[in-house]
Amino acid sequence: MFAIYCSGHESRVLLFSEHIEALVNRPDGVELRWRCTCGTTGNTHIHHNPAPLQEVA
User: Taking a C-beta distance cutoff of 8 angstroms, is the pair 6, 14 a contact?
Assistant: First the structure.
């Protein structure tokens, strides 16, 4: 489950995995393309901030 803001509902809506239209890997994270139960579509960007690598002794 994931929550998005839907302009069709004019509120936050809880969606399920079947509402995912695509997942697109980007250098800075993942773009989630979704379709709401009302038919509205949208994109949500999930940023990836990797921890800096540390040397091992």
Answer: no
Provide the 10 A C-beta neighbour count for residue 34: 19
Report which of 49, 52, 46 is spatially closest to residue 4, judged by C-alpha positions.
Answer: 46
pTM: 0.77
Please calculate the CA angle 50-35-11 and round it to the nearest 5 degrees: 85
Asked if 9 contacts 36 with a C-beta cutoff of 8 angstroms, the reply is: yes
Contact assessment for residue 42 and residue 34, using Cβ atoms and an 8 Å cutoff: yes
Summarize pLDDT for 4-27 with one digit per residue, the tens.
999 999 999 999 999 999 999 998
